[in-house]
Automatic annotation (TrEMBL):
<feature type="domain" description="TrmE-type G">
    <location>
        <begin position="219"/>
        <end position="369"/>
    </location>
</feature>
<comment type="similarity">
    <text>Belongs to the TRAFAC class TrmE-Era-EngA-EngB-Septin-like GTPase superfamily. TrmE GTPase family.</text>
</comment>
<keyword id="KW-0963">Cytoplasm</keyword>
<dbReference type="Pfam" id="PF10396">
    <property type="entry name" value="TrmE_N"/>
</dbReference>
<dbReference type="InterPro" id="IPR004520">
    <property type="entry name" value="GTPase_MnmE"/>
</dbReference>
<keyword id="KW-0378">Hydrolase</keyword>
<feature type="binding site">
    <location>
        <begin position="248"/>
        <end position="254"/>
    </location>
    <ligand>
        <name>GTP</name>
    </ligand>
</feature>
<dbReference type="InterPro" id="IPR027368">
    <property type="entry name" value="MnmE_dom2"/>
</dbReference>
<feature type="binding site">
    <location>
        <begin position="229"/>
        <end position="234"/>
    </location>
    <ligand>
        <name>GTP</name>
    </ligand>
</feature>
<dbReference type="Pfam" id="PF12631">
    <property type="entry name" value="MnmE_helical"/>
</dbReference>
<dbReference type="GO" id="GO:0030488">
    <property type="term" value="P:tRNA methylation"/>
</dbReference>
<keyword id="KW-0479">Metal-binding</keyword>
<feature type="binding site">
    <location>
        <position position="445"/>
    </location>
    <ligand>
        <name>(6S)-5-formyl-5,6,7,8-tetrahydrofolate</name>
    </ligand>
</feature>
<dbReference type="InterPro" id="IPR027417">
    <property type="entry name" value="P-loop_NTPase"/>
</dbReference>
<comment type="subunit">
    <text>Homodimer. Heterotetramer of two MnmE and two MnmG subunits.</text>
</comment>
<keyword id="KW-0630">Potassium</keyword>
<dbReference type="GO" id="GO:0003924">
    <property type="term" value="F:GTPase activity"/>
</dbReference>
Amino acid sequence: MKSENIAAVSTPAGRGGVAVIRLSGDSPLAVAEQMFLPRGNTRVKDFQPYRMYPGEIVAEHFKDFGLCVYFKAPHSFTGEDVVEFHCHGGTSIARGILSRALSLGCRGAERGEFTKRAFLNGKLSLSSAEGLIDMINGESEAEVRAGYMLYGETLKNEADGLQAEITDILAGIDADMDFPEEDIEHTDLSDIAVRLKKLSAKLSSLTASYGTGRKIKQGVRVVIAGRPNTGKSSLLNALLQAEKAIVSSVPGTTRDAVEGTLEIEGVRFNLYDTAGIRESENEIENIGIARARALIDGADLILFVLDGSEKMSEEDEEIYRQVADKPKIVVSNKNDLQGEGGEKCDIRVSAKTGENIAALRAMMLEKSMAGYDTDAAFLIEKRHYDALACALAEINEAVSLCGNVPLDLLGVHLKAAWDKLGEISGKTATEEIINEIFSKFCVGK
Ligand code: GDP
Protein backbone atom coordinates (compact mmCIF):
# COMPACT_ATOMS: atom_id res chain seq x y z
CA MET A 1 0.00 0.00 0.00
CA LYS A 2 1.29 3.44 -0.87
CA SER A 3 2.11 5.73 1.99
CA GLU A 4 2.64 9.43 1.49
CA ASN A 5 5.80 10.93 2.95
CA ILE A 6 4.97 13.06 5.98
CA ALA A 7 7.26 15.41 7.88
CA ALA A 8 7.24 17.33 11.14
CA VAL A 9 9.50 18.86 13.74
CA SER A 10 9.49 16.26 16.52
CA THR A 11 11.12 18.36 19.24
CA PRO A 12 9.23 21.10 21.10
CA ALA A 13 9.12 24.62 19.70
CA GLY A 14 11.69 26.98 21.14
CA ARG A 15 15.43 27.10 21.54
CA GLY A 16 17.54 24.16 22.65
CA GLY A 17 20.67 22.19 21.94
CA VAL A 18 19.24 20.10 19.14
CA ALA A 19 16.03 19.78 17.18
CA VAL A 20 14.82 16.74 15.27
CA ILE A 21 12.87 16.80 12.01
CA ARG A 22 11.25 13.49 11.20
CA LEU A 23 10.14 12.12 7.82
CA SER A 24 8.16 8.92 7.35
CA GLY A 25 6.60 7.21 4.35
CA ASP A 26 7.52 5.27 1.23
CA SER A 27 10.57 7.24 0.22
CA PRO A 28 11.93 9.67 2.80
CA LEU A 29 15.48 8.76 1.82
CA ALA A 30 14.80 10.08 -1.70
CA VAL A 31 13.77 13.37 -0.09
CA ALA A 32 16.90 13.35 2.09
CA GLU A 33 19.03 12.87 -1.01
CA GLN A 34 17.90 16.29 -2.18
CA MET A 35 18.54 18.12 1.07
CA PHE A 36 21.49 16.47 2.77
CA LEU A 37 25.16 16.68 1.74
CA PRO A 38 27.08 13.99 3.62
CA ARG A 39 30.58 14.92 4.76
CA GLY A 40 31.96 11.42 4.14
CA ASN A 41 32.04 9.37 0.95
CA THR A 42 28.78 7.47 1.43
CA ARG A 43 25.98 8.87 -0.70
CA VAL A 44 22.59 9.33 0.94
CA LYS A 45 20.96 6.56 -1.10
CA ASP A 46 23.65 4.17 0.18
CA PHE A 47 23.17 5.10 3.85
CA GLN A 48 23.16 2.12 6.15
CA PRO A 49 20.16 2.08 8.44
CA TYR A 50 20.50 3.11 12.09
CA ARG A 51 23.77 4.97 11.56
CA MET A 52 24.30 8.64 12.14
CA TYR A 53 25.85 10.45 9.20
CA PRO A 54 27.25 13.97 9.64
CA GLY A 55 26.81 16.54 6.93
CA GLU A 56 25.08 19.68 5.73
CA ILE A 57 21.31 19.94 5.96
CA VAL A 58 20.20 22.20 3.14
CA ALA A 59 17.14 24.33 3.87
CA GLU A 60 15.51 26.80 1.50
CA HIS A 61 17.65 29.83 2.36
CA PHE A 62 20.36 28.49 4.67
CA LYS A 63 22.37 25.44 5.63
CA ASP A 64 23.03 23.87 9.02
CA PHE A 65 25.60 21.27 9.97
CA GLY A 66 23.97 18.25 11.58
CA LEU A 67 23.21 14.56 11.40
CA CYS A 68 21.03 12.34 9.28
CA VAL A 69 19.82 8.86 10.25
CA TYR A 70 17.82 6.36 8.26
CA PHE A 71 15.50 3.78 9.85
CA LYS A 72 14.56 1.04 7.43
CA ALA A 73 11.02 -0.39 7.26
CA PRO A 74 9.67 -2.30 9.07
CA HIS A 75 12.19 -1.74 11.86
CA SER A 76 11.30 1.86 12.61
CA PHE A 77 8.93 3.64 14.96
CA THR A 78 6.19 3.93 12.31
CA GLY A 79 7.00 0.64 10.58
CA GLU A 80 7.75 2.63 7.42
CA ASP A 81 11.01 4.07 6.11
CA VAL A 82 11.94 6.95 8.41
CA VAL A 83 14.60 9.63 8.12
CA GLU A 84 15.57 12.01 10.89
CA PHE A 85 17.58 15.20 10.63
CA HIS A 86 19.23 16.35 13.83
CA CYS A 87 19.98 20.05 13.52
CA HIS A 88 20.82 22.84 15.93
CA GLY A 89 17.90 23.65 18.17
CA GLY A 90 16.59 26.97 16.94
CA THR A 91 12.99 27.66 15.95
CA SER A 92 13.92 29.14 12.56
CA ILE A 93 16.44 26.38 11.84
CA ALA A 94 13.95 23.57 12.44
CA ARG A 95 11.14 25.39 10.65
CA GLY A 96 13.37 26.15 7.63
CA ILE A 97 14.47 22.53 7.32
CA LEU A 98 10.87 21.33 7.64
CA SER A 99 9.67 23.74 4.95
CA ARG A 100 12.37 22.41 2.61
CA ALA A 101 11.10 18.87 3.19
CA LEU A 102 7.57 20.10 2.45
CA SER A 103 8.63 21.82 -0.76
CA LEU A 104 10.26 18.55 -1.80
CA GLY A 105 6.87 16.85 -1.65
CA CYS A 106 6.36 15.80 1.95
CA ARG A 107 3.04 16.61 3.60
CA GLY A 108 3.00 18.21 7.05
CA ALA A 109 2.14 15.49 9.57
CA GLU A 110 -1.08 15.72 11.55
CA ARG A 111 -1.17 15.41 15.33
CA GLY A 112 -0.01 11.96 16.35
CA GLU A 113 0.22 10.81 12.74
CA PHE A 114 3.58 9.05 13.22
CA THR A 115 2.17 7.08 16.14
CA LYS A 116 -1.08 6.43 14.29
CA ARG A 117 0.89 4.92 11.42
CA ALA A 118 2.85 2.84 13.94
CA PHE A 119 -0.52 1.58 15.26
CA LEU A 120 -1.93 0.89 11.80
CA ASN A 121 1.27 -0.96 10.89
CA GLY A 122 0.98 -3.13 13.98
CA LYS A 123 4.04 -1.70 15.76
CA LEU A 124 2.07 -0.95 18.92
CA SER A 125 -1.45 -1.39 20.24
CA LEU A 126 -3.91 1.39 20.92
CA SER A 127 -3.35 1.11 24.68
CA SER A 128 0.39 1.24 24.10
CA ALA A 129 -0.03 4.49 22.16
CA GLU A 130 -2.13 5.84 25.03
CA GLY A 131 0.64 4.86 27.44
CA LEU A 132 3.02 6.89 25.33
CA ILE A 133 0.77 9.96 25.67
CA ASP A 134 0.52 9.35 29.41
CA MET A 135 4.30 9.24 29.66
CA ILE A 136 4.73 12.40 27.62
CA ASN A 137 1.98 14.29 29.46
CA GLY A 138 2.75 12.77 32.85
CA GLU A 139 3.49 15.29 35.56
CA SER A 140 4.65 12.83 38.17
CA GLU A 141 7.01 9.87 38.12
CA ALA A 142 4.14 7.52 38.97
CA GLU A 143 2.31 8.66 35.83
CA VAL A 144 5.41 7.96 33.78
CA ARG A 145 5.71 4.50 35.33
CA ALA A 146 2.02 3.81 34.69
CA GLY A 147 2.32 5.06 31.11
CA TYR A 148 5.31 2.80 30.57
CA MET A 149 3.31 -0.16 31.88
CA LEU A 150 0.72 0.51 29.14
CA TYR A 151 3.35 1.29 26.55
CA GLY A 152 5.03 -2.04 27.29
CA GLU A 153 1.70 -3.84 26.50
CA THR A 154 1.16 -5.19 30.03
CA LEU A 155 -2.55 -4.36 29.94
CA LYS A 156 -2.98 -5.46 26.33
CA ASN A 157 -1.42 -8.84 27.11
CA GLU A 158 -3.83 -9.23 29.99
CA ALA A 159 -6.80 -8.37 27.76
CA ASP A 160 -5.52 -10.71 25.04
CA GLY A 161 -5.34 -13.54 27.57
CA LEU A 162 -8.95 -12.95 28.61
CA GLN A 163 -10.01 -12.84 24.96
CA ALA A 164 -8.25 -16.15 24.29
CA GLU A 165 -10.13 -17.75 27.16
CA ILE A 166 -13.45 -16.45 25.79
CA THR A 167 -12.56 -17.71 22.31
CA ASP A 168 -11.90 -21.13 23.77
CA ILE A 169 -15.23 -21.26 25.58
CA LEU A 170 -17.01 -20.04 22.46
CA ALA A 171 -15.34 -22.74 20.37
CA GLY A 172 -16.70 -25.39 22.73
CA ILE A 173 -20.19 -23.90 22.52
CA ASP A 174 -20.04 -23.73 18.71
CA ALA A 175 -18.94 -27.34 18.39
CA ASP A 176 -21.77 -28.36 20.64
CA MET A 177 -24.34 -26.51 18.55
CA ASP A 178 -22.94 -27.65 15.21
CA PHE A 179 -23.16 -31.34 16.06
CA PRO A 180 -26.00 -31.65 18.54
CA GLU A 181 -26.91 -35.19 17.57
CA GLU A 182 -23.42 -36.52 17.23
CA ASP A 183 -22.08 -38.65 19.93
CA ILE A 184 -19.38 -36.20 20.90
CA GLU A 185 -18.65 -35.10 24.38
CA HIS A 186 -21.18 -32.38 25.04
CA THR A 187 -20.22 -29.12 26.62
CA ASP A 188 -20.11 -29.45 30.33
CA LEU A 189 -22.22 -26.59 31.66
CA SER A 190 -20.69 -26.67 35.10
CA ASP A 191 -17.25 -26.36 33.51
CA ILE A 192 -18.41 -23.31 31.55
CA ALA A 193 -19.88 -21.80 34.70
CA VAL A 194 -16.58 -22.21 36.54
CA ARG A 195 -14.61 -20.65 33.71
CA LEU A 196 -17.02 -17.73 33.40
CA LYS A 197 -16.78 -17.05 37.12
CA LYS A 198 -12.99 -16.98 36.88
CA LEU A 199 -13.23 -14.51 34.02
CA SER A 200 -15.60 -12.39 36.05
CA ALA A 201 -13.22 -12.37 39.03
CA LYS A 202 -10.27 -11.34 36.88
CA LEU A 203 -12.26 -8.55 35.23
CA SER A 204 -13.52 -7.37 38.62
CA SER A 205 -10.05 -7.04 40.02
CA LEU A 206 -8.86 -5.23 36.90
CA THR A 207 -11.73 -2.75 36.95
CA ALA A 208 -11.17 -2.22 40.68
CA SER A 209 -7.56 -1.23 39.94
CA TYR A 210 -8.90 1.90 38.26
CA GLY A 211 -9.15 3.39 41.75
CA THR A 212 -5.37 3.30 42.01
CA GLY A 213 -4.89 4.38 38.41
CA ARG A 214 -7.21 7.34 38.78
CA LYS A 215 -5.30 8.49 41.87
CA ILE A 216 -2.05 8.25 39.95
CA LYS A 217 -3.40 10.20 37.04
CA GLN A 218 -5.34 12.87 38.91
CA GLY A 219 -3.41 12.90 42.17
CA VAL A 220 -4.59 11.55 45.52
CA ARG A 221 -7.11 13.95 47.07
CA VAL A 222 -6.10 14.52 50.66
CA VAL A 223 -8.27 16.67 52.89
CA ILE A 224 -6.93 18.05 56.14
CA ALA A 225 -9.77 18.27 58.64
CA GLY A 226 -10.07 19.17 62.29
CA ARG A 227 -11.30 21.91 64.54
CA PRO A 228 -9.70 25.35 64.37
CA ASN A 229 -6.29 25.87 65.92
CA THR A 230 -5.21 22.22 65.94
CA GLY A 231 -2.50 23.18 63.43
CA LYS A 232 -3.98 22.12 60.09
CA SER A 233 -2.46 24.98 58.13
CA SER A 234 0.87 24.45 59.88
CA LEU A 235 0.73 20.75 59.05
CA LEU A 236 -0.07 21.54 55.42
CA ASN A 237 2.95 23.81 55.31
CA ALA A 238 5.15 21.23 56.97
CA LEU A 239 4.07 18.65 54.40
CA LEU A 240 4.60 21.04 51.53
CA GLN A 241 7.63 22.67 53.11
CA ALA A 242 6.33 25.97 51.84
CA GLU A 243 4.36 28.84 53.34
CA LYS A 244 1.19 28.50 51.30
CA ALA A 245 -1.61 28.58 53.83
CA ILE A 246 -2.09 31.49 56.20
CA VAL A 247 -1.15 30.49 59.74
CA SER A 248 -2.86 32.37 62.54
CA SER A 249 -3.57 31.76 66.20
CA VAL A 250 -7.04 33.31 65.91
CA PRO A 251 -9.53 30.44 65.38
CA GLY A 252 -11.36 30.31 62.08
CA THR A 253 -9.01 32.30 59.87
CA THR A 254 -8.37 29.64 57.26
CA ARG A 255 -11.59 30.28 55.40
CA ASP A 256 -10.93 28.73 52.07
CA ALA A 257 -9.64 25.44 50.79
CA VAL A 258 -5.98 25.98 50.12
CA GLU A 259 -4.46 23.63 47.67
CA GLY A 260 -0.92 22.42 47.49
CA THR A 261 0.71 19.51 45.73
CA LEU A 262 3.44 17.20 46.84
CA GLU A 263 4.95 14.00 45.52
CA ILE A 264 5.58 10.95 47.67
CA GLU A 265 7.69 8.36 45.91
CA GLY A 266 6.58 9.79 42.61
CA VAL A 267 2.85 9.73 43.43
CA ARG A 268 1.13 13.11 43.35
CA PHE A 269 -0.94 14.18 46.35
CA ASN A 270 -3.25 17.19 46.18
CA LEU A 271 -3.80 18.67 49.62
CA TYR A 272 -6.83 20.64 50.69
CA ASP A 273 -7.11 22.52 53.92
CA THR A 274 -10.56 23.01 55.39
CA ALA A 275 -11.97 25.83 57.38
CA GLY A 276 -12.92 24.12 60.64
CA ILE A 277 -16.13 22.16 60.26
CA ARG A 278 -18.21 23.82 62.89
CA GLU A 279 -21.42 25.71 63.07
CA SER A 280 -20.89 29.42 63.03
CA GLU A 281 -22.79 32.69 63.07
CA ASN A 282 -20.33 34.03 60.59
CA GLU A 283 -21.71 33.81 57.06
CA ILE A 284 -18.39 33.64 55.24
CA GLU A 285 -17.26 30.89 57.52
CA ASN A 286 -20.48 28.98 56.84
CA ILE A 287 -19.64 28.94 53.15
CA GLY A 288 -16.26 27.53 54.12
CA ILE A 289 -17.95 24.89 56.24
CA ALA A 290 -20.15 23.77 53.33
CA ARG A 291 -17.07 23.54 51.15
CA ALA A 292 -15.24 21.55 53.78
CA ARG A 293 -18.08 19.03 53.89
CA ALA A 294 -18.04 18.70 50.10
CA LEU A 295 -14.29 18.25 50.19
CA ILE A 296 -14.51 15.50 52.78
CA ASP A 297 -17.10 13.68 50.68
CA GLY A 298 -14.80 13.68 47.66
CA ALA A 299 -11.59 12.85 49.50
CA ASP A 300 -9.43 9.79 48.90
CA LEU A 301 -7.80 10.29 52.28
CA ILE A 302 -8.52 12.46 55.31
CA LEU A 303 -5.87 13.74 57.66
CA PHE A 304 -7.87 14.30 60.81
CA VAL A 305 -5.81 16.62 62.97
CA LEU A 306 -6.03 16.76 66.76
CA ASP A 307 -4.24 19.10 69.12
CA GLY A 308 -2.10 16.65 71.08
CA SER A 309 -1.57 19.13 73.87
CA GLU A 310 -5.23 18.94 74.85
CA LYS A 311 -7.77 16.23 75.52
CA MET A 312 -10.24 15.56 72.72
CA SER A 313 -13.10 18.03 72.91
CA GLU A 314 -16.75 17.56 72.00
CA GLU A 315 -15.99 19.47 68.81
CA ASP A 316 -13.20 17.01 67.95
CA GLU A 317 -15.57 14.11 68.57
CA GLU A 318 -18.21 15.72 66.35
CA ILE A 319 -15.78 16.08 63.42
CA TYR A 320 -14.40 12.62 64.07
CA ARG A 321 -17.90 11.19 63.62
CA GLN A 322 -18.15 12.90 60.23
CA VAL A 323 -14.96 11.35 58.94
CA ALA A 324 -15.23 8.04 60.80
CA ASP A 325 -16.13 5.92 57.78
CA LYS A 326 -13.66 7.58 55.37
CA PRO A 327 -10.12 6.36 54.71
CA LYS A 328 -8.22 8.45 57.21
CA ILE A 329 -5.16 9.02 59.32
CA VAL A 330 -5.72 10.50 62.77
CA VAL A 331 -2.82 12.86 63.36
CA SER A 332 -2.03 14.17 66.80
CA ASN A 333 -0.16 17.43 66.27
CA LYS A 334 1.89 19.62 68.61
CA ASN A 335 3.79 16.65 70.01
CA ASP A 336 6.55 19.07 70.98
CA LEU A 337 4.25 20.29 73.78
CA GLN A 338 4.25 16.83 75.38
CA GLY A 339 0.51 16.93 76.04
CA GLU A 340 -1.79 14.06 76.93
CA GLY A 341 -4.24 14.43 74.06
CA GLY A 342 -4.56 12.62 70.74
CA GLU A 343 -6.13 9.54 72.30
CA LYS A 344 -7.31 7.91 69.06
CA CYS A 345 -4.34 8.90 66.95
CA ASP A 346 -2.45 6.83 64.37
CA ILE A 347 0.63 9.05 64.52
CA ARG A 348 2.03 11.86 66.65
CA VAL A 349 3.73 14.72 64.85
CA SER A 350 4.85 18.26 65.33
CA ALA A 351 4.23 20.63 62.47
CA LYS A 352 6.44 23.09 64.33
CA THR A 353 9.57 20.97 64.69
CA GLY A 354 8.96 18.66 61.75
CA GLU A 355 8.94 15.60 64.01
CA ASN A 356 7.46 12.53 62.26
CA ILE A 357 6.43 14.47 59.16
CA ALA A 358 8.44 12.06 56.98
CA ALA A 359 6.74 9.13 58.69
CA LEU A 360 3.37 10.77 58.05
CA ARG A 361 4.17 11.07 54.34
CA ALA A 362 5.06 7.37 54.22
CA MET A 363 1.80 6.55 55.99
CA MET A 364 -0.16 8.65 53.49
CA LEU A 365 1.35 6.68 50.62
CA GLU A 366 0.72 3.34 52.28
CA LYS A 367 -2.84 4.17 53.22
CA SER A 368 -3.94 5.57 49.87
CA MET A 369 -2.03 3.29 47.52
CA ALA A 370 -2.36 -0.06 49.27
CA GLY A 371 -1.81 -2.93 46.85
CA TYR A 372 -0.24 -0.67 44.24
CA ASP A 373 2.02 -2.92 42.21
CA THR A 374 4.03 -1.07 39.59
CA ASP A 375 4.70 -4.26 37.61
CA ALA A 376 1.15 -5.59 37.34
CA ALA A 377 -1.49 -4.44 34.88
CA PHE A 378 -3.81 -1.78 36.23
CA LEU A 379 -6.11 0.80 34.73
CA ILE A 380 -5.26 4.46 34.38
CA GLU A 381 -7.42 5.37 31.38
CA LYS A 382 -11.15 5.89 31.69
CA ARG A 383 -11.57 4.44 28.19
CA HIS A 384 -10.04 1.17 29.37
CA TYR A 385 -12.15 1.18 32.49
CA ASP A 386 -15.35 1.69 30.48
CA ALA A 387 -14.45 -1.11 28.07
CA LEU A 388 -13.60 -3.57 30.83
CA ALA A 389 -16.64 -2.61 32.90
CA CYS A 390 -18.84 -3.43 29.87
CA ALA A 391 -16.99 -6.71 29.33
CA LEU A 392 -17.51 -7.55 33.00
CA ALA A 393 -21.25 -6.79 32.78
CA GLU A 394 -21.56 -9.13 29.76
CA ILE A 395 -19.67 -11.92 31.52
CA ASN A 396 -21.77 -11.49 34.65
CA GLU A 397 -24.89 -11.68 32.52
CA ALA A 398 -23.58 -14.90 31.01
CA VAL A 399 -22.87 -16.27 34.49
CA SER A 400 -26.42 -15.60 35.61
CA LEU A 401 -27.91 -17.10 32.43
CA CYS A 402 -25.67 -20.14 32.36
CA GLY A 403 -27.81 -23.26 32.53
CA ASN A 404 -31.07 -21.37 32.05
CA VAL A 405 -30.87 -20.47 28.40
CA PRO A 406 -29.74 -22.13 25.16
CA LEU A 407 -25.99 -22.05 24.64
CA ASP A 408 -26.12 -19.71 21.66
CA LEU A 409 -27.63 -16.99 23.82
CA LEU A 410 -24.73 -17.37 26.20
CA GLY A 411 -22.48 -17.00 23.18
CA VAL A 412 -23.98 -13.60 22.35
CA HIS A 413 -22.83 -12.19 25.69
CA LEU A 414 -19.42 -13.81 25.40
CA LYS A 415 -18.92 -12.35 21.95
CA ALA A 416 -19.92 -8.91 23.22
CA ALA A 417 -17.39 -9.21 26.05
CA TRP A 418 -14.75 -10.30 23.56
CA ASP A 419 -15.41 -7.21 21.43
CA LYS A 420 -15.15 -4.92 24.44
CA LEU A 421 -11.81 -6.47 25.44
CA GLY A 422 -10.56 -5.87 21.90
CA GLU A 423 -11.03 -2.13 22.38
CA ILE A 424 -7.99 -2.14 24.67
CA SER A 425 -5.61 -3.20 21.93
CA GLY A 426 -7.66 -1.45 19.27
CA LYS A 427 -8.56 -4.64 17.39
CA THR A 428 -12.24 -3.78 17.72
CA ALA A 429 -12.00 -0.04 18.34
CA THR A 430 -13.98 2.24 16.04
CA GLU A 431 -12.28 4.73 13.77
CA GLU A 432 -13.81 7.49 15.89
CA ILE A 433 -12.09 6.22 19.04
CA ILE A 434 -8.80 5.80 17.21
CA ASN A 435 -8.92 9.31 15.76
CA GLU A 436 -9.79 10.81 19.10
CA ILE A 437 -6.83 9.16 20.77
CA PHE A 438 -4.28 10.31 18.22
CA SER A 439 -5.65 13.83 18.18
CA LYS A 440 -4.44 14.12 21.78
CA PHE A 441 -0.85 13.79 20.59
CA CYS A 442 1.25 16.71 19.54
CA VAL A 443 2.43 17.25 15.98
CA GLY A 444 5.68 15.40 15.39
CA LYS A 445 4.86 12.44 17.64
P1 GDP B 1 -5.50 25.64 62.06
O1 GDP B 1 -6.52 26.64 62.53
O2 GDP B 1 -5.92 24.27 62.42
O3 GDP B 1 -5.17 25.77 60.61
O4 GDP B 1 -4.17 25.91 62.92
P2 GDP B 1 -2.87 26.75 62.56
O5 GDP B 1 -1.98 26.01 61.65
O6 GDP B 1 -3.29 28.13 62.18
O7 GDP B 1 -2.16 26.75 63.96
C1 GDP B 1 -2.80 27.23 65.13
C2 GDP B 1 -1.74 27.60 66.17
O8 GDP B 1 -1.04 26.42 66.61
C3 GDP B 1 -0.65 28.54 65.63
O9 GDP B 1 -0.34 29.45 66.65
C4 GDP B 1 0.50 27.62 65.35
O10 GDP B 1 1.74 28.27 65.45
C5 GDP B 1 0.35 26.58 66.44
N1 GDP B 1 0.92 25.28 66.04
C6 GDP B 1 0.65 24.57 64.92
N2 GDP B 1 1.34 23.42 64.90
C7 GDP B 1 2.07 23.39 66.05
C8 GDP B 1 2.98 22.43 66.62
O11 GDP B 1 3.30 21.36 66.08
N3 GDP B 1 3.51 22.74 67.85
C9 GDP B 1 3.21 23.91 68.48
N4 GDP B 1 3.78 24.12 69.65
N5 GDP B 1 2.36 24.80 67.97
C10 GDP B 1 1.79 24.57 66.78
